[in-house]
Design a protein that fits this description.
Elements: E1 3-7, E2 10-12, E3 18-25, E4 33-39, E5 46-51, E6 57-59, E7 67-72, E8 77-82, E9 91-99, E10 102-105, E11 109-113
Parallel strand pairs: 2-11
Antiparallel strand pairs: 1-3, 3-8, 4-5, 4-9, 5-6, 7-8, 9-10, 9-11
């Protein structure tokens, strides 16, 4: 049974930092492209960052230079370092594993940026 479990969410002040982690209980984790998406209240879910099995990364323009995605294939984890946070980064952040016809989602972690 595939399971993705996010951790590390919370409340942080503007300009602060937070690290999200996703533990993937999944066979052959290394073949999956791993992504972080987010969904703010009243908005559609959007792709924030992605890392391929080869280590290539993608970032949405809104987070480029502030967020960093990384993966550890030995530990089956993918992390998202969030820095210089803004109130508009407030959202539920979801971990997503995708490979061809397979797609798995975590339950989400709340990140709230507020003073």
């Amino acid at each position: 049974q595939v399971q993705l479990v996010e951790s590390g969410g919370g409340l942080v002040q503007p300009g602060g930092s937070l690290r999200l982690s996703c533990a993937a209980h999944i066979v052959i984790f290394s073949i999956y492209t791993m992504e972080w998406h987010r969904q703010a209240p009243g908005k559609e879910r959007e792709l924030v960052a992605a890392i391929s099995r080869g280590g290539s990364t993608y970032y949405a323009d809104s987070v480029k230079g502030r967020f960093t995605i990384s993966r550890d294939n030995a530990k089956n984890t993918v992390d998202l370092q969030l820095s210089t946070l803004k109130p508009e980064d407030t959202a539920v952040y979801y971990c997503h594993a995708v490979d061809r016809g397979y797609s798995y989602w975590g339950q989400g972690a709340q990140v709230t940026v507020s003073s």
